[in-house]
Please model this.
Amino acid sequence: MREARDYLTHHDRAERAKMTPEAQLWASSETMRLTARLTQIMAWLLIQKAVHAGEISRADAASAEHRLSGQEVCDTNGCLDEVVLQPKLVELLDRSHRLYQRVARLDSMLDSVA
Model:
């Protein structure tokens, strides 16, 4: 989260200024995808933390409202093959996608709890 925040705050705008308008649009779209992935992961982890702290039950955590969501946006690599994006953004997108997939596997384990 911090690395993505630092990149988006301090480097993204300067790098984006060098891009074509079409590439800037794709970069904006992929930046939103990055943010969505990280937000979904963080929310899921906070629910798991609440379970371990005894604030909610494991069965409650397995309910649909507390599950990892956003698969239609988060579990895809978007336009990475279609346009050249900033190398750091591509790295963050790749890492966030792999992390989202790992959390999705953990989330699927909750099906046996429900």
Summary: The mean pLDDT is 89. Residues 41 and 69 are 9 Å apart (CA to CA).
